[in-house]
């Protein structure tokens, strides 16, 4: 016999999955009338809760899932250390899953987590993620979700973020103050909220300094290092107006930018000045040393973990939002 | 995004659908070469099997665990990518757990994995791991374990390693050939098999070049960056005999060595030459660019994953051992 799901009940009654889930749990948020309808249909269709999911509900797995795009970025590896420092102290296991920036992977991972394997999930969405059905489905199974760093605005969930708009602004203003007039912004996917906020900060800083915003100065990079190298090189070879400043919004573009400048015999900072969003320890030993926007990765991980523990204990933290500011660290790559 | 089907893979490779399907299931009927081609294309095109179709087999979790010391090291993040490229093509979930180099964590993680949560485990032991009871306990629960990179010799299990002895030898011989006479070896825990093999290679290279081995030239580094900085700086300040070459056996010591040289106004390579075991992409843009022993991280991950799949299918692979060689890439930090 086909297993009747919460989703099927929701479809049949034209209600949301989360309403059904709450009605079945006798939540005070749902009216008596709705509960009645849900229970009647559940009885008719012989609905039984997913045994894995809810029979384990009582005894927690004391395990949480951390879903991130990748670990080759120092932000995520530091954030994971922050998460584990909190979780370990509370006796929780931490399972890490990677989406490799792909929405399909993210969906599969969250679906797997519906089975009661974890008590809660910390999520930084992939750059392809545009809709949040898979996140709501997980929350509807009583698995709380806390966003960190990369959030999906349409989903209501607790979030720990950094001040991406202000950081994009600060990076750009810093370059202007050091004499740049033609500043290029190296971005990634347009869907990714953090990237957009950083770029909005860039645009605002240009406007406040009475510099024109040119769409040609916003360069979209991909996951392919060779392709990015070509794109950046081409951009740096542009004659008039020649770019004299670069805001790189992704850590891995550091190597690309330095390599392209090197190969074109452009000197950093005299020919072109560079600021990169990066937590790389190695920034200090580059030549010249790299000016960075350094994110509070470890602290964000800690804060997100603490918030998730509260949610697991039954507190409603859905509307919690914490912004931990990033820091501009000026070094050799952007001085006059 | 368009879903890639087995049919599409078949068309692309000019093979039958049944051949592709068998290759993905690792059938003995298909040659290793064909399997390799199919898996490579499946990874490139981001093929995922229909999860419902393939969960019909047995009551496996179709999940594997990957247990590594950390992800802030590019070797591990690349190896994980290799592991996932194989596992994803076969429709497996990958859960990553970090030991942070602590034996107690490793024991807890492996104990948790005894519960049937995973069908198999890929393990790179922590630097504290000296005994293998926890690994044998897991294997005794019919959860196969495959070592990669860092193995514990006392446990009989399949292993994918690189040629650490030869690499330690090659790094040292390279420095000798470039004029170094007083070469320091920066190591880590003495218990870690890979570190020992690298150091044995260093010793053998010195002996073969009729250079004395001095215990004072072997420096033990820790997990504490500030402490390592002090240790390395002190070593570089030594008067007679002054060190003129460094073999750094751990990637994260790169920053330490460059920083210490910089602060002491020692020039690389004229005052001291450096070779580092590292997979950092950024090695090319350091000043000078860094000579590395580059490990086949991605390939090791792929090989370990394939071996684990065989073990999960019931093949006895316990005595399998594969050595994938590392490569010395000479760059600016070690030239004459």
TrEMBL record, chains A, B:
PROSITE patterns: HTH_LACI_2. The keyword Transcription applies. Keywords: DNA-binding, Transcription, Transcription regulation. The keyword Transcription regulation applies. SUPFAM superfamilies: lambda repressor-like DNA-binding domains, Periplasmic binding protein-like I. Gene3D superfamilies: 3.40.50.2300, lambda repressor-like DNA-binding domains (1.10.260.40). Residues 4-58 form the HTH lacI-type domain. This is LacI family transcriptional regulator. It comes from Chitinophaga alhagiae.
């Amino acid at each position: 016999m086909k297993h009747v799901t919460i989703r099927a009940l929701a479809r049949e009654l034209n209600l949301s999955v989360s309403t059904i889930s709450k009605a079945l749990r006798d939540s005070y948020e749902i009216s008596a009338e709705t509960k009645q309808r849900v229970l009647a249909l559940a009885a008719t269709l012989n609905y039984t809760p997913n045994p894995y999911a809810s029979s384990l509900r009582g005894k927690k797995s004391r395990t949480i899932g951390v879903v991130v795009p990748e670990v080759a970025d120092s932000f995520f590896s530091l954030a994971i250390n922050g998460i584990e420092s909190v979780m370990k102290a509370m006796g929780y296991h931490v399972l890490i899953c990677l989406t490799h920036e792909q929405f399909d992977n993210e969906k599969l991972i969250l679906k797997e987590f519906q089975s009661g394997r974890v008590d809660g999930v910390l999520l930084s969405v992939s750059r392809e993620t545009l809709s949040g059905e898979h996140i709501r489905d997980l929350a509807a199974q009583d698995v709380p979700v806390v966003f960190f760093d990369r959030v999906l605005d349409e989903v209501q969930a607790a979030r720990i973020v950094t001040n991406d708009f202000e950081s994009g602004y600060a990076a750009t203003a810093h370059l202007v103050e050091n004499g740049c007039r033609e500043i290029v912004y190296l971005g990634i996917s347009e869907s990714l909220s953090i990237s957009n906020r950083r770029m909005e900060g860039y645009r605002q800083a240009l406007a406040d300094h009475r510099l024109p915003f040119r769409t040609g100065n916003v360069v979209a990079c991909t996951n392919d290092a060779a392709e990015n190298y070509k794109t950046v090189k081409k951009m740096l070879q542009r004659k008039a107006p020649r770019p004299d400043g670069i805001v790189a919004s992704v850590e891995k573009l550091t190597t690309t930018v330095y390599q392209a400048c090197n190969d074109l015999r452009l000197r950093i900072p005299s020919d072109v000045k560079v600021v990169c969003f990066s937590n790389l320890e190695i920034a200090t030993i580059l030549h010249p040393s790299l000016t960075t926007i350094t994110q509070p990765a470890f602290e964000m991980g800690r804060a997100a973990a603490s918030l998730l523990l509260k949610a697991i204990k039954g507190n409603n933290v859905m509307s919690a939002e914490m912004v931990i500011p990033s820091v501009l660290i000026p070094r050799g790559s952007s001085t006059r």
